[in-house]
Write a structure and sequence with these properties.
alpha+beta, SsrA-binding protein, cytoplasm, single chain, globular, RNA binding, 7-stranded antiparallel sheet, RNA-binding, 159 residues, SmpB, Small Protein B, Chain: A
């Protein structure tokens, strides 16, 4: 057990949406819990989930994760879960209202960034509020990334 004063933040990332930061300008991030069944948690612990094509939406005062892929747990037999079912996200009322306002008024999107297990072993989703990037913004991002890579190579060569 870790000493009381030390900060122990062990996050084991299960699934990550790597294209999200390229396709969207991230404004704010939130940590949300997931309502999962037992076989979904076991499947997540195996680490084969995929959230690259998923998104979140608000319906009836709740936030839902749609189109996320959690493969079936092989040892579950007939008690297995659906792989692409809608999953409810657990957020506080204030956060839900803030997200609904941003989506409805400002035209922003709710993008899942990654699923991970926190230090208590709970499955969490990092949810981002973002605006879609235009094509010229994406080009600018890629130019900047290439320049930084080239700059690091030159600095490494010269010492």
């Amino acid at each position: 057990m870790a000493p009381k004063g030390s900060e122990r933040t062990v996050k084991r990332v299960v699934a990550e949406n790597r294209k999200a930061r390229f396709n969207y300008e991230i404004v704010d991030t939130y940590e949300a819990g997931l309502v999962l069944t037992g076989t979904e948690v076991k499947s997540l612990r195996e680490g084969k989930a995929n959230i690259s094509e998923s998104y979140a939406t608000d319906e009836g005062g709740e936030i839902w994760l749609i189109n996320s892929y959690l493969p079936e747990y092989l040892q579950a037999n007939r008690f297995n879960h659906e792989t692409r079912r809608r999953r409810k996200l657990l957020l506080s009322k204030r956060e839900v209202n803030r997200l609904q306002g941003a989506v409805n008024r400002e035209g922003m999107s709710l993008i899942p960034l990654r699923i991970y297990f926190n230090e208590r072993g709970r499955a969490k989703l990092e949810l981002a509020l973002g605006k879609g990037k235009k094509l010229h913004d994406k080009r600018e991002t890629s130019k900047e990334r290439d320049w930084n890579r080239q700059k690091n190579r030159l600095l490494k060569e010269r010492g």
